[in-house]
Amino acid sequence: MSNQPLKNDLLLRALLREPTSRTPVWVMRQAGRYLPEYRELRARAGSFINLMSTPELACEVTLQPVKRFPLDAAILFSDILTIPAAMGLGLHFVEGEGPNFEHPVRDAAAVGKLGVPDPDMELRYVLDAVRLIRAELAGRVPLIGFAGSPWTLACYMVEGGASKEFARIKGMLYAEPACLHQLLELLTRSIILYLNAQIAAGAQAVMLFDTWGGVLTGSAYREFSLRYMQAVISQLQRESQGRKVPVILFTKGGSVWLESMAESGADALGIDWTLELGDARRRVNGKVALQGNMDPAALFASPERIREEVQNVLHSYGKGAGHVFNLGHGITPGVKPEHAAAMIAAVHELSPAFHK
Amino acid sequence: MSNQPLKNDLLLRALLREPTSRTPVWVMRQAGRYLPEYRELRARAGSFINLMSTPELACEVTLQPVKRFPLDAAILFSDILTIPAAMGLGLHFVEGEGPNFEHPVRDAAAVGKLGVPDPDMELRYVLDAVRLIRAELAGRVPLIGFAGSPWTLACYMVEGGASKEFARIKGMLYAEPACLHQLLELLTRSIILYLNAQIAAGAQAVMLFDTWGGVLTGSAYREFSLRYMQAVISQLQRESQGRKVPVILFTKGGSVWLESMAESGADALGIDWTLELGDARRRVNGKVALQGNMDPAALFASPERIREEVQNVLHSYGKGAGHVFNLGHGITPGVKPEHAAAMIAAVHELSPAFHK
C-alpha cells in the first residue's frame, strides 16, 4: 500500500466529527456515466464487467472525477454485486435492465451450496484495483472502499436482479425466515472479510450501501438488515496506517429509522434528500456524522440555482463539525459535468462560514 | 344517486375517529389482477382503457372484491390519469410499461394550452360508473372515490409516463418553478371539480393518492405537493346525504413528513408499511385517523403467518377509534385470493378486542 502521507484529510476528520476548515465534498457515483471520459473508457472496455474487473481500468475510472474536480475523496469504482458474483451466481448486465444472476438463490438447498469467497482469490481484482488507486492517488485524497449490505445483496441474489416489489425475498422473509437468516449470516461473514481486505489493501474509509433496506417494515429492517450491518461494523479492522478507518452507513429510504441507525456503530450516516439535514442532526443528537443530502435532481438547474441549493443544505446542517457534503443519492447520468463542478465549487466557497 | 340507507358505516365512522365495534378493512387495489374474475373480465374487455372507461365494466370490477370478501368499502375502479387523459394528452398503456402520454407537457407553452376538464362532459364515464356502483351496492358498504394528487398527475404529464428519477419534472421544479406552479394550479382546480362531481354522483369518502410526493425534498414536498392537496381538500363538498364525506390523504414514502400531513385538513392519512402504526399514531397525536399498513408482501406467507401480521398491525395501532385496516400499498398481483381472505377474516376476528 502507498505510504505517501495523506495531504487532504478533511473527509476522515469530518466523518469522525473533528473540526475542519470547510465541509468536505464527494459525490455518490462520481465516477460514471455523466462524465464523457467515463463513457469513452466504457466503450473501449467493451463491457461494464470488463471495466470493473480490470484493475487498471477500475483505477482509471476511480481517478477520473478526482482529476476533473477538487473533490475531497475518491471512491473505489466497482459494483455492489462482486460478492454474489464471486459466489458463482453468474452475474451479467443486460443493457437498460441492470444486473441479473443466472443462478438466483431461492431456497434452503441453494443457500446451503453457497460458500464465503476468499477475497485474496475470487475478489483479488478488487484489491488490486485498491492498491493501484492508492499508488496513483499518492496521498492526494483518501480512498473510500465499499460493499453492499447483507440485506441488499440478498435482495439481488433471491430476486435474480433488480426488483420493484421484492415479492420473492419478502416471501422468503415471511414464510422461511430461517433460510433468509442463514443467507444473511453467510453474506455478513463474506462482507467482513471483503471490507477488511479492502482496508488492508488501502481503503481509508468504508461505506455500506443498504440500497434496499427501505422496502422493509420497521421491525423487519431491524431484524433482517440493521442487525447484520451492525455485525459487519463490529468486526471491521478500524485502523490503517495509524489512523481510524471511519464507516459510513447508508440506507436509502431509511430516514424513518435514523435513531436506530445512529446506534449501529457506524461513524456517519448517509442521508437521502427527503429529510432536512437539520432535522436529521437533531435526531441523531451528536452520535454520528452526517453525509448528504442535496437532491440529485437539483443538478438539472442552473449553476446559480445549484449554488442556492448548496447553501440550503449547508445552512440546514448548520455550524460545526460532522458534515460531509454529498448528494442524497447517486448523481444522475444526464447531468452536465459543469453543473457538478458548480456544486463542488459552491461547497468550497460557502462552507468555511459554517466552520468559524 | 342511490337513496338506500347505508348498512355498514364502519369505514365512515373510523375515518372520523368515531367509535366502532371492530376495525373496518379494505384493500388498496382490491379490484384487480390478483382476482381471476378480474383477469377474465379484463380479457373480455380487450384493453385496460376500455375496461375502465365503460361504466358497466368499471362497476362490475369495483364490485368483484366486495362480492368475494366481507370488505367494509368499495373503491371506484378507475385510473389516476383520467384528468390528464381528459385534457387531451393521449393516454395509452404499454403492456409491462404502464401508462404513457403521446403529448407530454414539458414547457410553459404546453402548460398554457391546457384547460380544466368539465367532469360532466369529458369525465362523464367516471360519474356514470359511480352512479351505477352506488345503485348496485344498494347501501351494502360505502363507495370511496379518488384522484391522483396535483403533483403526482404533473409527474406523469411532464415525464410522459412512469419514471425512476423524475429528471424532467424536477428539472422544471428547480429551473422553472413558475411554470410548474401554473401546471399544479390548473390540476388543483381540475381535481376539485372532479372529486366534487364524484361526491355529487355518490362517492361517500374520497382519497387523494400522492404516489410520487415521496421523491421530493421536505421543503419541495410542502411547496409543490402538500400545499396543493390542502387547496383541494379545503374546497371539497364535504357532505352528502346528510353525512360527512371523509378525505384520506396518502403520500407514498411520506412518513417522514407525517406531522405536516396531519395539518392538511384530511380526516385520515394512509400510512405505508415502513412506519410502525403506533409511532405514526403518537406523531399525529389524535389529529387524524390512520389507514394501513400491513406490508403487501406479507400476503405471500401462510394464512397463519398473515394472521400474526394482522395482529401485529392491530396491536401497533392499539386500542380505540381511528384505525382503518389496509395494506401499506396496493395488493401485489401474484397474491392468492385465499391469502387476502385470510387477512380480512383475521381483521374481523382479532380487531373487536381493540374496541372494548
Uncertain spans of chain A, ≥5 residues at pLDDT below 50? none
Overall shape of chain A: it is globular
User: Radius of gyration of chain A in whole Å, from Cα?
Assistant: 19 Å
Order of SSEs of chain A: HHHHEHEEHHEHHHEHEEEHEHEHEH
User: How is the main sheet of chain A built?
Assistant: 7 strands, parallel
Q: Walk across the major sheet of chain A and give the strand order.
A: 1-4-5-8-9-10-11
- Which chain pair has the greatest contact? A-B, 37 and 37 residues
Strand content of chain A: 5-15%
| Helix/strand/pairing category of chain A | alpha/beta
Cα distance, first to last residue of chain A? 36 Å
Number of helices of chain A: 15
Strands of chain A, count: 11
Oligomer: homodimer
Question: Whole-number average pLDDT of chain A?
Answer: 96
Summarize the amount of helix of chain A as a percent range.
Answer: 40-55%
